[in-house]
Specification:
Number of strands: 6
Largest sheet: 4 strands, mixed
Structural class: alpha/beta
CATH topology: Collagenase (Catalytic Domain)
Order of helices and strands: EHEHEEEEHH
Distance between the termini: 21 Å
CATH superfamily: Metalloproteases ("zincins"), catalytic domain
Radius of gyration: 15 Å
Shape: globular
Strand content: 25-35%
Strand order of the largest sheet: 1-2-6-3
Helix content: 40-55%
């Protein structure tokens, strides 16, 4: 069973069902057929710049960032998953930047979000 948590401010309309289906499909394709939890957050540019500055020392917005809960820091995991659930981590997407990229590529925002979700999720899986 997959637990896919999606947070988004009301000004950033996202198709939650479409995103959940995509994440479930990607997890299954990549062999994660057991209990997995992943969260997604859609944020504005200021929040993304702050995250990118704090975690990557870059003073600019990124389209997507992935924060694994499987990485080790000083020999310890950031967070322990329940024994029957694998908590992969968090994917943060900058909605305004996704909109800009979709316009530049002449595609729907949902298509750009799918590409960013896939990129972020694959980063979490390959950690």
């Amino acid at each position: 069973m997959y637990s896919i948590l999606i947070r988004s401010e009301s000004r950033f309309p996202v198709n939650r069902k479409r995103i959940k289906r995509q994440v479930e499909k990607l997890l299954t394709i990549n062999g994660l057929t057991f209990d997995v939890e992943v969260s997604l957050a859609f944020v504005g540019e200021r929040r993304m710049i702050k995250l990118n500055r704090e975690y990557r020392d870059l003073d600019q917005a990124a389209a997507v960032l992935s924060f694994s809960q499987l990485e080790e820091k000083a020999g310890e995991r950031f967070i322990s998953s329940p024994p029957d659930t694998l908590y992969l981590g968090d994917i943060v997407i900058c909605y305004p930047l996704a909109q800009k990229l979709a316009n530049e590529e002449n595609i729907l925002i949902d298509e750009e979000i799918e590409a960013l979700v896939e990129h972020g999720l694959l980063n979490l899986i390959k950690i």
